[in-house]
Specification:
15 helices; 83% helix
Length: 392
């Protein structure tokens, strides 16, 4: 993989850390800014909404610029709003920075996905996608725990400063590593208009793949969001084990996205079929055996690997299928991921609020993956019927 691709992954690491780090900083933010815990939680919701809305909109806006210019604009905006967030004493301002930062994050990831697959051979899109998304998994392994430690030692603002500082090397890397004229909007870089790209995104195969990506990612973050109370109240481990379990999930995620990237380019269908079945079974097993510390910790590692192997493969398949949308494919893939990231925890929260306990989100994750498998099966059957009709 080109070295520049790993540098883009560094920026994705900083952005992934920012997206998830508030899980450990909310109470401190609430005390410092004199707001309620739910108000502090709304900072995460603002980021999720910004990611969902921003991915397609920022991808459309970025069509007018070269990939380097778009990446720089989005990354510098992301960096600046984190500096503002680190110094502000106003909750509304902080809330606004989270939304704007998410827009910039979504735009960057949308363009970076297109840039990444453009850096490699046409048959290596899976590896390129997994390399880029590896930054998200490393955020789970290193960035989020580090942000929590910084918040405990130097206050929540230090975590915002750290995200801004980590973004700085990526700015210089983009200046040096991404060609100035790469992928220039609707000009010679693509030759495809925005309307034509949007029409191509309505292809049934592509829409189904986006839905599957949202469902699988929803399942992933449904359980991940509530791992802490699951570990402490159901598994019976002490609070000190929570960072360890979260790190195990992150390690599994990194292993899964790395292995999945290598398989996705050569055998994507078997990976999605067998990996999807194993993923659904794994969530069921975790829900049933969550009371056992050994079983729970092993399954957290396994499920992290399966979730990101299947999820990253689905995103790479979007990039393969969306040949008619060379600049917007990344935006819609990013939006699909974040629809799942927002909807999954919400569904898990509803299950907990209904009184079903902290195992409930794991059962919801299993149900979401089963729904994904059923959707894929119906789509495959429909495609087979249509093909037979055309043949006749």
């Amino acid at each position: 993989m080109p070295f520049a691709l790993h540098l883009l992954g560094l920026a994705v690491f900083a952005q992934g850390t920012s997206e998830f780090m508030l899980a450990g900083l909310g109470p401190d933010i609430a005390r410092d800014l004199q707001v309620s815990i739910p108000a502090a939680g709304a900072l995460t919701s603002a980021f999720a909404v910004g990611m969902v809305v921003g991915a397609p909109l920022m991808a459309l806006a970025g069509r007018r610029w070269s990939q380097r210019r778009a990446l720089l604009l989005f990354l510098v905006t992301f960096l600046v709003v984190h500096v503002v967030g680190a110094v502000t004493t106003s909750y509304p301002v902080l809330l606004g920075t989270r939304f704007v930062g998410a827009l910039a994050n979504a735009g960057f990831l949308a363009v970076a996905l297109v840039t990444a697959v453009g850096m490699v051979d046409r048959t290596a899109k899976g590896r390129a996608t997994s390399t880029l998304l590896g930054g998200v998994t490393m955020a789970c392994v290193v960035g989020v725990p580090a942000g929590a430690v910084l918040g405990q030692v130097w206050g929540w603002r230090s975590a915002f400063w750290a995200v801004a500082l980590v973004s700085v090397p990526a700015v210089f890397a983009i200046l040096r590593a991404v060609p100035a004229g790469a992928g220039t909007g609707v000009g010679p870089g693509t030759g495809v208009g925005a309307a034509a790209e949007l029409r191509s995104l309505r292809a049934p195969r592509l829409l189904v793949t986006l839905v599957l990506g949202a469902l699988v990612n929803g399942a992933t973050f449904c359980t991940f969001t509530y791992l802490s109370p699951l570990v402490t109240t159901v598994t019976g481990l002490g609070a000190g084990w929570v960072p360890v379990v979260l790190a195990l999930f992150g390690v599994g995620s990194f292993a899964g996205v790395t292995a999945g990237g290598r398989i996705a380019d050569v055998r994507p269908v078997p990976l999605l079929a067998y990996g999807g079945l194993a993923l659904a079974l794994g969530w069921v097993l975790l829900a049933v055996t969550a009371g056992s510390p050994v079983a729970a910790t092993v399954l957290v590692l396994v499920q992290g690997a399966l979730s990101f192997a299947v999820g990253s493969t689905l995103i790479s398949q979007v990039m393969y299928a969306a040949t008619g949308a060379p600049t917007l494919a990344g935006g819609f893939a990013t939006a699909a991921l974040n629809v799942g990231a927002a909807a999954g925890p919400w569904c898990g929260g509803l299950a907990i609020a209904a009184g079903h306990g902290f195992r409930a989100p794991v059962w919801v994750s299993a149900a979401l993956v089963v729904l994904a498998l059923a959707t894929a099966g119906v789509a495959a059957a429909s495609a087979t019927v249509m093909a037979r009709r055309e043949y006749v």
